[in-house]
Write a structure and sequence with these properties.
This protein is α/β, with parallel strands linked by helices and 340 residues long. It has helices spanning 66-73, 98-106, 122-132, 140-151, 166-178, 196-211, 223-226, 247-253, 268-276, 299-311, 326-333; strands spanning 28-37, 40-50, 55-59, 81-86, 89-90, 107-110, 184-188, 215-220, 232-237, 240-246, 258-266, 281-287, 290-295, 315-322. The chain is 32% helix and 27% strand. Bound molecules: adenosine-5'-triphosphate (ATP) and magnesium ion.
């Protein structure tokens, strides 16, 4: 059963904007974004729109195109085609550097494997980046102090990077992209490798950033890692968004169906054939010795199904049913391949 944190409700807001209508409230607009690496189609006709203060989870398996999408938005990688508009500025490459400069000042991008300089102190590292962002030297102590505070690592300022844990390094990477106070944060797999405690802390930081007015895109291949702090979810597979929902709607999907697991003693193949054409049965798979499927009907209709199975001389040894988690909903749209 999916646990929906009541606190998260504060993050949720309705998302009713018609898909094709340009809204003055939008801060990121992506339409038909496409990117090839040689003949490999990495991002395929991708579209989504975000409003200010959206926290958008881009979820997908390895190789789905998450990093490629984020790197294009961060202007590190060139798109092949499609429209990208960031805070009113269209992403264009043939207008000198103007468009890119404007977009870069609006965006803070935290890569999945930030290159860190292990022999520096945390404060030296941030100082280096403050310079790289062309922040006025007089302002450095202030912006560094604030970034450290927001990332919750003020006490680490004089520590060497080398001895820091992964969670602490992650926060330092976050502090770095806050230095120039960007409106938009692109975080590539920020929760990867964090222990549960560090993940809770990350969640608090993200909530704080959202309150400060930031719009955030977070990628992950594990929905559970980020479901607490996203108000919108895009499920990406093979470079395409296969589902785009606000979190509330996705959570509602979990009550639309039941996951069933049946152990059959006799006539297993007959049971499989019967279930594979039953109208309310979806995603039928063998799960070791059991048949596993999603049932799209009520409990009464499920009881009816069992009754018919028994009438057909299919001997059911055990029958389990459970409510899907958000993770199951995600799997439903991605990896689990049904029996054909
Ligand atoms: N620089 C590159 N050169 C060639 N192919 C690439 C390059 N970068 C990515 N790809 C390919 O593009 C596809 C999308 O990769 P991408 O890194 O965007 O996926 P991802 O969703 O971030 O995956 P992961 O969860 O593993 O980080 C993959 O098939 C990948 O092999
Ligand atoms: Mg990636």
């Amino acid at each position: 059963m999916a646990y929906i944190d009541p606190e998260k409700a504060a993050l949720d807001k309705p998302y009713n904007e018609p898909f094709d209508e340009q809204s003055s409230k939008e801060i990121i607009r992506v339409r038909g974004l496409t990117k090839y690496f040689d003949s490999k189609l990495a991002v395929n006709d991708l579209s989504f729109t975000l409003e200010p203060q959206d926290v958008f989870g881009l979820i997908g398996p390895n190789g789905a195109g998450k990093t490629t999408t984020l790197r294009i938005l961060a202007t590190i990688l060139r798109k092949d085609s499609g429209e990208v508009v960031i805070d009113g500025t269209p992403l264009e490459y043939d207008t000198g550097m103007e468009s890119l400069r404007k977009i870069r000042s609006t965006i803070g991008f935290m890569p999945d494997f930030p290159g860190l300089y292990d022999d520096l102190l945390v404060s030296e590292y941030l100082e280096f980046y403050a310079r790289a962002y062309y922040i006025d030297e007089k302002m450095h102590p202030f912006v560094i102090k604030e970034a450290l505070e927001i990332a919750g690592i003020t006490e680490l300022a004089n520590r060497e990077i080398e001895g820091l844990s992964r969670g602490m390094k992650q926060r330092m990477g976050l502090a770095r992209i806050l230095l120039h106070d960007p409106k938009i944060l692109l975080l590539d797999e920020p929760a990867a490798g964090l222990d549960p405690r560090a993940r809770v802390e990350l969640r608090e930081i993200i909530k704080g950033l959202r309150k400060k007015g930031k719009t955030i895109i977070i990628s992950s291949h594990i929905l559970e890692d980020i479901e607490d702090f996203c108000n919108r979810i895009g499920i990406i597979e093979d470079g395409r968004i296969v589902k785009l929902e606000d979190m509330d709607t996705l959570a509602k999907e979990t009550i639309k169906y039941t996951i069933c697991k049946v152990t059959i003693l006799k006539n297993r193949e007959q049971a499989k054939d019967f279930l594979s054409v039953y109208p309310q049965v979806q995603n039928l798979v063998w799960d070791e010795e059991n048949l596993r499927f999603d049932f799209m009907g009520s409990d009464e209709e499920l009881a009816q199904l069992l009754k018919i199975m028994v009438q057909k001389d299919i001997e059911v040894l055990s029958f389990n049913k459970e409510r899907p988690s958000l993770e199951d909903v995600y799997m439903k749209f991605t990896e689990r391949k049904p029996i054909t």
